[in-house]
Write a structure and sequence with these properties.
single chain; two-stranded antiparallel sheet; about 30% helix; about 190 residues; about 20% strand
């Protein structure tokens, strides 16, 4: 069997969302000092890694495209994540960031792209380049686009947090979990069956 992976969204799954005072919405951190790992997310990542799953981050990060921060700032925020993971002995096989947005204002990062979730592009690319079995892989996210992405790629999906009623079959996750620890337990239980 090819290697299996757990694909993970970032914001709202690994790190806390931040209130953007300009929009009044919970969004991605806009600076490194706003980046905070969610309590309790590192042990389940260690468990999944120890069980042999490749960990792959797949995240839409449009703040540069939208003119909210610089590419350098996005890099510093990513480094905060990497530092936390390395400190816990967690290795991600790859980090996949879509920096585009259909209504972006930054040239070269605006308009439609092939990599923005719900597109499964990053998952299919990882399958081809890493020899992954998508049938044995999972996508964990907190947004409908995460679930659509996973379903389009043919992986099993877990929705984190309180989910609104699904609007279609493509936004209905295979499982729901309160947080990453519960999601990891679901995956590991299925692996044991």
């Amino acid at each position: 069997m090819s290697e299996a992976a757990v694909f993970l969204d970032r914001d709202g799954v690994l790190n806390s969302l931040v209130l953007n005072r300009d929009t009044g919405r919970l969004e991605s951190p806009l600076s490194p000092d706003q980046f905070r790992m969610i309590d309790g997310v590192l042990p389940p990542l260690v468990r999944l890694q120890s069980a042999g799953y490749a960990l792959i981050l797949v995240s839409n990060q449009p703040n540069y495209a939208l003119g909210k921060c610089s590419l350098e700032t996005l890099g510093h925020i990513h480094q905060e994540l990497v530092t936390e993971l390395l400190y816990a002995g967690i290795h991600f096989a790859r980090f996949c960031y879509c920096l585009h947005h259909p209504r972006g204002v930054t040239p070269g990062y605006s308009g439609l792209c092939i990599c923005r979730k719900p597109s499964p592009w990053f998952l299919l690319r990882a399958r081809d380049e890493l020899g992954l079995s998508l049938a044995h892989s999972w996508m964990i996210g907190d947004q409908p686009t995460d679930i659509q992405c996973g379903r389009a790629a043919g992986v099993r999906t877990i929705r984190i947090g309180a989910a609104p009623p699904p609007t279609s079959q493509s936004t209905t996750s295979h499982h729901a979990a309160a947080h990453l620890a519960d999601a990891a337990e679901l995956i590991l239980a299925q692996q044991r069956d």
